[in-house]
């Protein structure tokens, strides 16, 4: 299966803080990929670079064979002109163009237009696909009115798709939080994406709403749309994702199936930590993609016996 998105050696630095540090991964067509990691691991910063909202320090992002971010020649780094060049459109693509290429996203915090109705919020996402010009819009020509009617029908179709059952003429501020999440996903889908980025879509949802979200994401995948989601609910991630990329302090520490990630001691250490008195686990047997439970158990036992032995010497 061909790669829809290729991220290579992506780096983002704020002063001395390395938010993203050499991240590389790919997304295949029609797959569900989860990006996980502790708070502050760099997940949302990576999303912002991939979708064109942030200017990365270095690295490349290729989507459907087109460069969203290009590797900047070293001379421009030496002359400290990288940010100036990127602000004028060199070596990067603006988010609006990325959307037209077929990438859509939602945000960790809702980004709906509070002053607009539910239906109008979804319609705002369709500007990239409308062909009406300035004068037809200004004069409300028959062609403009037909386009607006078609736009409204399509927006209603996406609301139906995500399972929105309330009044589409309500302001979004009148909706409960879970329904606002549905509207935001419907708006992203209204751009006709090939890749959908979801930043913590289950945050603030109850169990029933999360199960509904899992079914919705699978429906989106069945349309042929690849989905990449950042999520902290590990039960949901293990149930939904076909592949998982794990970040910690901006670095990728694991990439594999849910079963492989669940058994990876490096991932467990990143989430749970280790005691200062405990010797590091010998992971030479655990570096292959397929990690066996027996090998993990043996390594943990070895580390425990070594720790007890050291304690006995001290006494």
How would the blueprint of this fold be written?
Layout: E1 3-14, E2 17-28, E3 32-36, H1 43-50, E4 58-63, E5 66-69, H2 74-78, H3 82-87, H4 95-101, E6 103-105, H5 118-123, H6 134-139, H7 142-161, H8 177-189, E7 195-199, H9 207-222, E8 226-230, H10 234-240, E9 243-248, E10 251-256, H11 258-262, H12 265-272, H13 293-314
Parallel strand pairs: 3-8, 3-9, 6-7, 7-8
Antiparallel strand pairs: 1-2, 1-4, 4-5, 9-10
Question: Which key terms come to mind for this protein?
Answer:
alpha/beta, Rossmann fold, 4-stranded antiparallel beta sheet
Q: Report the structural category.
A: alpha/beta
Please outline the major beta sheet.
6 strands, mixed
Give unreliable regions as ranges: 283-296
CATH homology superfamily of the largest domain: P-loop containing nucleotide triphosphate hydrolases
Q: Name the CATH architecture of the largest domain.
A: 3-Layer(aba) Sandwich
Question: What strand order characterises the main sheet?
Answer: 6-7-8-3-9-10
Distance between the termini: 59 Å
Please summarize what this structure is:
The chain is α/β, with parallel strands linked by helices. The chain has 13 helices and ten strands.
Plain-language structure description:
- With 315 residues, this protein is of the alpha/beta class.
- It folds into 3 domains: 1-102 and 193-255, Rossmann fold; 114-191, no CATH class; 274-314, no CATH class.
- The chain contains 13 helices and 10 strands.
- The chain has helices at residues 43-50, 74-78, 82-87, 95-101, 118-123, 134-139, 142-161, 177-189, 207-222, 234-240, 258-262, 265-272, 293-314; strands spanning 3-14, 17-28, 32-36, 58-63, 66-69, 103-105, 195-199, 226-230, 243-248, 251-256.
- Strands 6-7-8-3-9-10 form a 6-stranded mixed sheet, sandwiched between helices.
- The longest helix is centred in the C-terminal third of the chain and has 22 residues, at 293-314.
- 31% of the residues are buried.
């Amino acid at each position: 299966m061909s790669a829809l998105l290729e991220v290579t050696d992506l780096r983002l630095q704020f002063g001395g803080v390395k938010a993203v540090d050499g991240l590389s991964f790919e997304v295949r067509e029609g797959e569900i990929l989860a990006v996980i990691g502790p708070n502050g691991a760099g997940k949302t910063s990576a999303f912002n670079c991939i979708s064109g909202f942030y200017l990365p320090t270095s690295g490349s992002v290729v989507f459907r064979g087109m460069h969203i971010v290009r590797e900047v020649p070293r001379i421009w780094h030496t002359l400290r002109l990288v940010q100036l060049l990127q602000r004028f459109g060199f070596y990067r693509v603006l988010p609006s163009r990325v959307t037209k290429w077929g990438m859509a996203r939602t945000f960790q915090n809702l980004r709906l237009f509070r002053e607009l109705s539910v239906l109008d919020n979804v319609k705002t996402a369709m500007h990239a696909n409308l062909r009406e010009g300035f004068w037809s819009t200004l004069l409300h020509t028959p062609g403009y009115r037909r386009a607006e009617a078609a736009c409204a029908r399509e927006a209603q179709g996406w609301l139906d798709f995500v399972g929105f059952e309330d009044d589409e003429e309500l302001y979004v501020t009148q909706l409960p939080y879970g329904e606002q999440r549905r509207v935001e996903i419907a708006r992203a889908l209204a751009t006709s994406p090939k890749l959908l980025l979801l930043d913590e879509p289950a945050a603030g949802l109850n169990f029933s709403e999360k199960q509904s979200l899992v079914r919705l994401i699978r429906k989106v995948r069945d349309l042929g749309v690849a989905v990449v989601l950042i999520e902290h609910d590990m039960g949901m991630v293990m149930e939904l994702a076909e592949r998982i990329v794990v970040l910690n302090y901006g670095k990728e520490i694991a990439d594999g199936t849910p079963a492989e990630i669940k058994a990876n001691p490096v991932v467990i250490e990143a989430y749970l930590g280790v005691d200062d008195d405990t010797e590091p686990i010998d992971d030479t047997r655990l570096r292959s993609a397929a990690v066996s439970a027996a090998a993990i158990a043996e390594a943990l036992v070895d580390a425990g016996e070594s720790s007890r032995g050291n304690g006995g010497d001290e006494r």
